[in-house]
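Write out this protein's structure.
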Amino acid sequence: MIKSIIFDLDGTLIDSMHIWYDIDRQFLIENGIENPPGEISERLKKLTIYESSELLIEEFNLACTKDYIVKRIEELVRIEYEEKIQLKPYVRELLDFLDSRGIPYAIATATYKSLAEAVLKRCGISDRFRFILTNIDYPRGKNFPDIFLGAAEKLGTLTGETLVAEDSLHCIETAGRAGFITCAIYDESSEKDRYLLEEKADYYFNSIYDIKDLIE
């Protein structure tokens, strides 16, 4: 029985993954890298914000600090989160259903907390989640289960009765190894991993609203 849900944010609740692919390249171009390699964003998506900054400095010999990169990336994407990014289809409907069943839910994200709060507030659902956890709370990121385990503890449920909804393969693998029920949600950015997501996740859904069927 599923007693709580831990949601990812980008690519799961909101349609935002394309923003990060554009921003990575934009940052490198403004720092003198005229033709950033096409695979750089794919490599960065598995890292925490500070790990990404360290990789960029070392690989592209950037003359800036990790703190500068973290702050600058946040500046570049802020307007997207505050004004443009939308919820993925049926998110509100699913939350309504979960509320009707008394199932608590929260967010575990690698995104800046300020940006997560901004987009959720603009979309009118910021007060519906029990809490938001980020890499600031759990610095090792989603390659380690800490953030999922911490979220389950705060929700008051065991791993085997907690559903983790994610769009990224490495997150599904991490949560699965830790004993969580896992649900992969389709996003265009992870289409190339679809076969592995279907294999590794306990469930794979094209729409987040299909989680309703698990609860019923």
